Every structure is written in structure tokens, then in C-alpha cells.
């Protein structure tokens, strides 16, 4: 058997990749590090509408700095183009999130309720808007000494919040406590029932002064999507 003629086959033997003979001296510059700082803090944003606005604002700043850095570096056309495209995408997301925030508006009572209660509970503006839409944004009035519910007779089928005024709660004619604005009227009854259980009020809330309240039918409230 004749020996194989490697030269005649014209085979190319792969060579090892070039080694880095020496590290580049000095730092990449302040703009490069500033971009990565923006990226670091940007990815700490949450998933709410304000969190998305925070996230994409810092990402836009980071990619803008990356674009400036790539523009000043020779032989970095690809980095410049990708940074520029991603900067445009993030900037568009910032404008979209800002538009969504401006489009979500409430009546004065609901805005105060959101700031005092729901915002502290971590409820996003968009989710609160869905809750308001579920009740069609209706505010109900309660005249002084008029009962919101009758003890042992009124079914527990709604969840209510006092917006203004004051409500007096009694049991068997004995005074228990007052309910003040931005407090729930029927949270004890709500907590005492299982999801599929029905019940009646065990106390009697009545308006101590002219009051306004906002309530939801429980069956409708359960249909609100939280995502």
C-alpha cells in the first residue's frame, strides 16, 4: 500500500487561535463603565407599569452610552449598530409605558383611595383600573342613620370601601367602633367566609354622617385578571 500524499490532497491543517500577547493598557473610559452601571440598576426594576418605565429608561441610557462608546472606537461598526438599534427599541418602550400611565386616570376619590390604600399594598395602576372598571366607577351615597347592612339579614355578596363620611358599627344595638374613610366596611365578614361559602352580616353598619362608599359584587370581582 502506497503512503498517503498529504501535499497532493491540498489539506489545510487548522492552526491554533492567536493568543493575547498582552492586555490592553488602561481602562475603556468613563462612558463604557457608565453604560454598564445603567444596565446594572436598570435590571433591578419591577414588573409593574412604573417598574417597566424605570427599567426601560435606564436601559435606554445604558444603550445610548454604549452607542457613544462604540462610535469612538475604531473597527466597532457592529457594536455601534446593535447599540443604536437597542437604544431605539428601549426608547420606544419608555414612550409606550409613559403613554399608558397618562391614559390611566381616575376620579379624585379613586385617586386618593389608590394612593392611601392600594398603592401601599403593591397594586399596580393598571390592575386598579381594572378593579374600578369592574364596578363601573360608581360611588354610592349613604344618608345619616341609614344602614348599609342589616344584622342577620343582609347577605355578604360585596366588598365595600368607605370614601368619605363615617360609619357606626353596632351588634345587638351595642356600639362597637367607627369606620373611617379608606377603610373596608365588611372585611371581617369577607375574611370569615371560605371562597365558596355564603353568609349573613353579623353586625349592623350605619352612617353616622353623610357618607360615600364604593363597593364591588364579589362574583364580578373574582373575574378581574391580575396579569
UniProtKB/TrEMBL annotation:
One of its GO terms (cellular component) is sarcolemma. The keyword Lyase does not apply. It is found in: Membrane. The keyword Transmembrane applies. Residues 28-156 form the POPDC1-3 domain. Keywords: Membrane, Transmembrane, Transmembrane helix. This is Popeye domain-containing protein 3. It comes from Takifugu flavidus.
Amino acid at each position: 500500500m502506497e503512503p498517503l500524499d498529504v501535499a497532493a490532497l491540498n489539506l489545510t491543517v487548522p492552526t491554533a487561535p492567536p493568543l493575547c500577547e498582552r492586555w490592553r493598557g488602561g481602562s475603556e473610559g468613563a462612558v463604557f463603565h457608565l453604560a454598564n452601571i445603567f444596565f446594572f440598576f436598570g435590571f433591578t426594576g419591577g414588573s409593574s407599569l412604573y417598574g417597566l418605565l424605570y427599567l426601560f429608561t435606564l436601559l435606554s441610557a445604558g444603550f445610548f452610552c454604549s452607542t457613544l462608546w462604540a462610535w469612538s472606537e475604531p473597527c466597532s461598526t457592529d457594536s455601534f449598530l446593535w447599540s443604536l438599534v437597542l437604544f431605539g427599541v428601549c426608547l420606544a418602550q419608555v414612550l409606550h409605558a409613559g403613554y399608558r400611565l397618562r391614559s390611566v386616570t381616575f376620579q379624585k376619590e379613586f385617586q386618593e383611595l389608590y394612593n392611601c390604600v392600594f398603592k401601599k399594598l403593591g397594586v399596580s395602576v393598571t390592575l386598579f383600573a381594572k378593579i374600578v372598571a369592574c364596578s363601573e366607577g360608581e360611588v354610592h351615597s349613604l344618608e345619616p342613620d341609614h344602614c348599609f347592612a342589616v344584622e342577620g339579614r343582609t347577605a355578604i355578596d360585596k366588598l365595600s370601601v368607605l370614601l368619605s363620611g363615617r360609619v357606626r358599627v353596632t351588634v345587638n344595638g351595642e356600639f362597637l367602633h367607627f369606620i373611617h374613610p379608606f377603610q373596608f366596611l365588611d372585611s371581617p365578614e369577607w375574611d370569615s367566609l371560605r371562597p365558596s361559602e355564603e353568609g349573613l352580616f353579623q353586625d349592623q353598619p350605619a352612617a353616622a354622617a353623610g357618607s360615600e362608599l364604593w363597593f364591588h359584587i364579589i362574583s364580578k370581582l373574582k373575574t378581574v385578571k391580575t396579569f
